[in-house]
Write a structure and sequence with these properties.
Blueprint (H helix, E strand, L loop, with lengths): L16 H5 L2 H4 L8 H6 L4 E5 L3 H16 L6 E5 L1 E10 L5 E3 L2 H8 L8 E7 L10 H8 L1 H11 L5 E3 L3 H24 L9 H5 L9 H22 L3 H28 L6 H22 L4 H15 L11 H10 L20 H23 L8 E7 L4 H12 L1 H7 L2 E8 L7 E6 L2 E6 L5 H26 L2 H6 L2 H30 L1
Parallel strand pairs: 1-2, 3-6, 7-8
Antiparallel strand pairs: 3-4, 3-5, 7-10, 9-10
Length: 518
């Protein structure tokens, strides 16, 4: 080259890698020809990419697009963090490290305790380090929807996304929950012992006079969730959008509304008209839920959308439904597929009712307390128990909750296995049982008769433990050497411990006396 510099020249048909990449928004649409695709799709709406190539690629595309076409190829760019995997290694004798084999790595990724001598850290994915998460493998093990939901829920604003394999397992479970919850709903839309809810019956609309507390709560939470998911998607907060949709379906629709509706759907409570009303609300909530989830989990939501469409779409209506929920559902189901159906929007701001949600939350606090008491008493799930709820004093807030529980005790009965619920004054509570407190109300579950012998043995052991503790504390305070050396606060602390333990002993002794009289 030095000898004949005139013989060397730059190839005229080669572009620098990043420079050629800057033409990508144009070249894929047929540029420099003025194609129909270029007219329709340039400029696009948004570019989604990792933050690490902002100046390598994104800036170049913007500059070249402006230069060649007079406008940027996309008005907005969403920069997300990079996915990091966990790399594991052992230190070699004599220096250096050796990375673990795939099978051993995967076991630790899924929660197996990491032994001494194995080290790990989150790093950019690398074949050498063996921390690559293969999407094809993930889809085979967990499903494409679980993988997409896990990625969406992990797309925070952080520069680094530490992607734990257990996230895929979590969203595989969610996909199962989505399928099973929808199947239960579809089962009762099909009749299950009564007239199926077809398009004609559904199109008559919901009778808002028939709304119970849980129906108003469902519509309020649905409205809140629709508004929240739309807002988070508009802000590219995909993790928050996925979490909001997840929480509504699993923690609210399935955990509460479906369980409360079951007695009505099975004919154990309510009228036939109430049953039809509940089925219409189930169809509306399910249709909105699957469309909310569709961008994150398109395959299972598309299948469920088609199943709803088969049942509720196809009959021409002589008049429009009177309520916006039925109208919106039928318009959505008229679409050929969920992917092109209108995305749920907040239909009526007035249906978001914080006071309804507060009243429902108070009842769920009582339910949570009952479940906790059952857990403390170690009662099996199949054991139906008596529940006493007592109100004392003239606090208007307590009286209001007390009245709510009296009116909506069926919600408690649907969500907790109870034999009976007694609302009474505090002085009428049974003397033997386990007590809880919610918003000033006392909740007591009496000890079932066949558990009393077991409880008596437990209390006797506890009594012996308290007596041994008292003996130790008294010996310590009776020790002259201890009193001479111990600081005064420590001595007072020991005296208080004795007083507290003596009170516990007296309470326990009283409970044993009550048990012996039963």
């Amino acid at each position: 080259m030095a000898a004949h510099p005139e013989q060397w020249y730059q190839d005229e048909d080669v572009l620098d890698t990043w420079f050629s990449a800057s033409l990508w928004p144009l070249s894929i649409l047929g540029w420099p020809e003025k194609t129909e695709e270029l007219k329709r799709f340039y400029p696009n709406d948004v570019l989604v990419t990792g933050h690490d190539i902002l100046f390598f690629w994104v800036a170049r595309m913007l500059l070249v697009g402006e230069y060649l076409e007079g406008t940027a190829p996309f008005p907005e760019t969403f920069l997300h963090g990079l996915i990091y995997g966990k790399s594991y290694w052992r230190e070699r004798q004599g220096g250096g490290i050796s990375y673990l084999a795939e099978q051993e790595r995967e076991a630790y990724d899924l929660g197996k305790p990491i032994p001494h001598g194995v080290f790990f850290k989150w790093e950019k994915m690398s074949k050498t380090k063996g921390n690559i998460i293969n999407p094809i493998e993930i889809i085979e093990h967990y499903g494409a929807d679980a993988m997409r939901m896990a990625l969406c829920s992990s797309a925070t604003q952080a520069r680094e996304i530490d992607l734990d394999r257990r996230r895929f397992e979590e969203f595989k479970n969610f996909a199962n929950k989505l399928w099973n919850g929808a199947r239960f709903t579809l089962l009762y839309l099909d009749g299950q012992g009564s007239t199926p809810l077809d398009a004609t019956l559904f199109a008559e609309g919901i009778d808002e006079e028939q709304h119970d507390l849980e129906d108003l709560w469902l519509l309020s939470r649905l409205g809140q969730t629709v508004r929240e998911v739309n807002m988070q998607l508009a802000n590219y907060a995909f993790d928050q959008a996925a979490t909001a949709a997840y929480d509504f379906f699993w923690r609210e629709f399935c955990a509460y509304y479906l369980e409360i509706a079951k007695p009505v759907l099975t004919g154990k409570r309510g009228t036939p008209n109430k049953r039809v009303h509940k089925r219409r609300l189930l169809a509306i909530a399910l249709c909105q839920a699957v469309r909310l989830i569709h961008p994150m989990a398109p395959f299972i939501s598309e299948e469920l959308f088609q199943q709803l469409k088969q049942r509720l779409c196809g009959t021409k209506r002589e008049k429009q439904p009177v309520d916006p929920y039925t109208q919106e559902t039928l318009e959505a189901l008229a679409s050929p597929a969920c992917v092109v159906a209108p995305y749920p929007q907040l239909l009526r701001t007035s249906d978001i009712q914080p006071d309804i949600e507060k009243r429902f939350a108070q009842i769920t606090e009582v339910i949570y307390s009952i479940r906790n008491i059952r857990g403390e008493m170690k009662l099996p799930p199949s054991e139906a128990v008596e529940v006493y709820i007592a109100c004392s004093g003239t606090d208007p807030n307590k009286e209001s909750l007390f009245q709510q529980l009296a009116r909506h005790r069926y919600i408690i009965e649907a969500l907790v296995r109870v034999q009976s619920i007694e609302l009474c004054e505090e002085n009428l509570l049974p003397t033997l049982g386990t007590l809880g407190n919610v918003a000033g109300l006392k909740i007591l579950i009496p000890l079932p008769g066949h558990f009393r012998a077991q409880e008596q043995r437990r209390l006797e052991k506890e009594k012996q433990r308290l007596e041994a503790t008292l003996l130790t504390l008294r010996e310590r305070l009776g020790n002259e050497a201890f009193l001479a050396k111990a600081p005064a606060p420590l001595v007072e602390e020991q005296k208080q411990k004795i007083a507290d333990t003596e009170q516990q002993w007296r309470d326990l002794h009283a409970m044993l006396d009550q048990l012996s009289k039963q």
